[in-house]
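Bumping with the actual sequence this time:
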Amino acid sequence: QLQLVESGGGLVQPGGSLRISCAASGFTLDHYTVAWFRQAPGKEREAVSCSGSSDGSTYYVDSVKGRFTISKDNAKNTVYLQMSSLKPEDTAVYYCNRPDGYWGQGTQVTVSS
């Protein structure tokens, strides 16, 4: 059964760092493009970052460039989003996505003092 399970969210102070994870099962992560989306209260879901399948390509939305890094651990079949210099506007539920229609359940990231 194909699943994406996020973890690692939490409360962090502005300027802090957090790494969230998305563990994949039922398919080999490195064979697919995988993306991170986020949705803040009252806002539409937006694409934050994605990692291409096996070619090393990455994408970042302008608002997180230089602060967020997406990476894959093929041995663990897991994709990570390392977030640094976090801002209150980064507060959202973060979702892992395989673009052909698979979503995780989301993990809450709250940036607040």
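The tokens above came from a reply further down the thread. The mean pLDDT is 95.
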